[in-house]
Write a structure and sequence with these properties.
The chain is of the alpha+beta class. The protein has one helix spanning 2-34, and strands at 40-44, 47-51. The chain has a two-stranded antiparallel ribbon. The longest helix has 33 residues, at 2-34.
């Protein structure tokens, strides 16, 4: 009886875990499609960065997170 209960509880927890992971993956995909990063992607030494230029004149200010 106890073993059956523990197996059932483990199955419920596993189901909730899989559902949470699936929900997170779908939500992340939808958010990326709805809100793309600003600017344009550029290649810098094999790494992809987003470049967003605003304004004109000087001095130039670079922000990198």
């Amino acid at each position: 009886m106890l073993r059956t209960s523990l197996v059932g509880l483990a199955a419920i927890l596993l189901t909730l875990l899989v559902a949470g992971l699936l929900y997170s993956a779908v939500s992340t995909s939808r958010d990326r499609a709805r809100h793309p990063p600003p600017g344009q992607p550029i290649d810098v030494g094999g790494h992809s960065l987003h470049l967003r230029c605003a304004g004109d004149g000087g001095p130039a200010v670079f922000l990198e997170a």
